[in-house]
Amino acid sequence: MSGRIPRRVEAVTKAGLLELIDRAVKDGWAHRGACQVLELPERRAWRWRTRRSADRLEDCPVGGNPVHGLLEWEQAEIVALFDEWAETDRCHRKLAHRGSCLGRVWVSPPSVLRVLAAHGRTLRRPKRGGTSRRRPFPAWVTSTKHSIWIYDTTHFRGCDGIGVTVVMDLVTRKWLATIVSAEETSTQVQVVFTDALEAEGLLDEALQRGADGLIDPTIDDERRPVLLAVSDNGAQMTSGSTREFMAMVAIAQHFGRPHTPTDQAWIESLFGHLKGEWPHLDQIDDSAVLRAELERARTHYNTVRLSLGVSRAVA
């Protein structure tokens, strides 16, 4: 061995270096001088002497035995939590929180994962259902004005508990009607659709077709529904009262998939633009003021703001 002594050497090398130092000291060398010649820090030599007297010259394994290491009872509790709660929590993070909530063991989520892996335990996530496909619109629907209307309800932070229901023409992106109410029932759906039909000049035709009765909407007939109403599966949209009203005004209903807001992307996009471009609406705490501001925003949205990629046909 030549040059500076490495940071880690084997026990045999340590013993040999100590023998060289002892021999040099016996021959009249100073202990420090012998260490300098061997390029070994003197304090390392003294530390090795202490360990040699205890027969511990061999280095300990990397990591040693940390004082914060998990105890056996903690590992046993982690395994017990897995056996009791794995089918409920299905996640090492939840198991870690479960142990602290129950007052049984306080460990980090990574520690739970390591202990479970060491004991051959594997958390199995539930199988996801197959991906569903959006139900297509009926064949009689056309991509023209007043063929498909979409509606939904949103909320603003300032007016807590106040719902805003909006009806929009899916093809032209025209914002047709709005209702601001503290309730979200079929009554609000009926009122906002009546306002939209009347504003677009379709109310009389809708009532006439509803009074005459509808045939199969899949048949291409002039008596088919006036238009298609698209929505999510909210209680006010799927209620029997809403279904009866829609039948009375000859409007067919189309519902998106549960928990899939992308099926109503058109109306969600409208809400996103509304809250992003008119941020002051979230600060209004008076429903009457909110109603007036929404009407101003509707006028601007329909007459000034451009919607790229679609034909506005707002007249």
Structure, described:
The protein is an alpha/beta fold. It folds into 3 domains: 11-53; 72-118; 148-303, Ribonuclease H-like superfamily/Ribonuclease H (Nucleotidyltransferase, domain 5, 2-Layer Sandwich), CATH 3.30.420.10. Helices cover 44% and strands 10% of the residues. It has 12 helices and 5 strands. Strands 3-2-1-4-5 form a 5-stranded mixed β-sheet, sandwiched between helices. A hairpin with a 7-residue loop joins strand 1 (148-155) and strand 2. The longest helix is centred in the first third of the chain and has 18 residues, at 72-89.
Quick synopsis:
With 315 residues, the protein is an alpha/beta fold.
Structural features:
single chain; 315 residues; alpha/beta; Nucleotidyltransferase, domain 5; 3 domains; five-stranded mixed beta sheet; 10% strand; disordered C terminus
Distance between the termini: 94 Å
Helix content: 40-55%
Q: Note the overall shape.
A: elongated
Strand order of the largest sheet: 3-2-1-4-5
CATH class term of the largest domain: Alpha Beta
The total domain count is 3
Number of E-state strands: 5
Low-confidence blocks of residues: 215-222, 309-315
Mean pLDDT: 88
Work out the helix count: 12
| SS content category | alpha/beta
Looking at this structure, what is the CATH superfamily of the largest domain? Ribonuclease H-like superfamily/Ribonuclease H
Q: What would the CATH topology of the largest domain be?
A: Nucleotidyltransferase, domain 5
CATH second-level architecture of the largest domain: 2-Layer Sandwich
Give the ordered list of helices and strands.
HHHHHHEEEHHEHHEHH
Radius of gyration: 38 Å
Largest sheet: 5 strands, mixed
| Portion in strands | 5-15%
